Amino acid sequence: MSIANEHQLYVVMNGRVIGDVQRTGKRRMRLRYSDSRGQSFTPLSVSMPGPIGRYRESILDPWLSGLLPDRPETLRQWRRQFGISHENDAYSLLRHVGEDLAGAAQFVRPERLEAVLERSGRLIPLDGPRIAEMLRRAKADLPVSDIDNGQGKFSLAGAQAKIALHRTEGGWTDPSGSVPSTHILKPAIPGMTDQDLVEAVTLRTASYLELSVAKCSVEEFGDERAIVVERYDRAQQSDGRWIRVHQEDMCQALGMWPTRKYESQGGPGAVSLADLIRRESRQPSDDVRRLVRALIFNWLVCGTDAHARNYSLLLSGQTIRLAPLYDLNSHLAYSDGSGNSLSMSVGGMFHADRITVDNWVRFAPALHIEPDWLRNEIDRQRESLLDAMAAAAASTDIAIYDSPAVRRLLSNTADWMDRRFERGGR
Is the pTM higher than 0.85? Predict the structure, then answer.
């Protein structure tokens, strides 16, 4: 490989080069968009809107880092595997794992560009035992795919072990090249028994409360079980071909490092997200309300890890909308709510059990929301929450396990709601 090739990555979205990233020094790089006049243009980020101009490492490096896992051991394994000596080197890692990421962008080495533009790729059939082994390897932070590294490995952001696969009518496959993954498979978090079931219940509860969320199921693969999440950043066209849909999380959209995802650590809070949506969304009032519904839901279920990276924007041309919710997890399966802190404060207050409806109402103007609407939304969710959660827990793929963690979730949520609303919660 030439020296020039080592310092360039093409940025491809659904078979079209939209620009390139070039490393110009040890810690320096720039993004340059291609000339897109007369064509529909989707930028990498609202923080790098284009379509002309160049963006330097101060904004580009944090954004690229947001495409990588949060798991330090996974990153160490990748650096060893690919011979990368420096930590915090997202560019070098994406040279090896940049062809299937969150969103539509693929980061493609020059020698791979022709194959990606020709939409070439492979789907390797997988049986249950093979997927089980991939899940075990993901939990152990080991390489999970047999596909040659040069063919484009996936990278998924977040702290939880997970793999990305492509589902066909005939079953599960391991995709490569231009063929996107369609689902994310996540085993339970170690130390949190049946966490996969709890996450599925939480997601479905939100759906039953009419929040927009990613679809999920709980499935077994050999001797492993996982929550299977349908990717909202993938879409199947009428000809059966799958395309990638672009998205970015809120840290990326705000130009912040992924390590600053918690408000208490200097990351974005609810006001920053609401302000961003007001500036960028095609339908700002609707999307701000969707955000506030999610914030309320995470308070009601003690969703303690609902940080900025668990909210995203969808980008399509000049249309920007709030993405469906994902990674929803109630902590009430593992605690009674006492002392739990939220990832985003309500008017500066993080402790979930100290937040009242009056706190929310006073917070409404900062969120660009009418106080009466916010109070009514809290009432709407709380009145239906327990029934919605019971219905979610009764789903066949969850109920079959008769999980003590799920039973505890239902019981603790009922007690938590009593404390919040019947004993001074207002």
Answer: yes
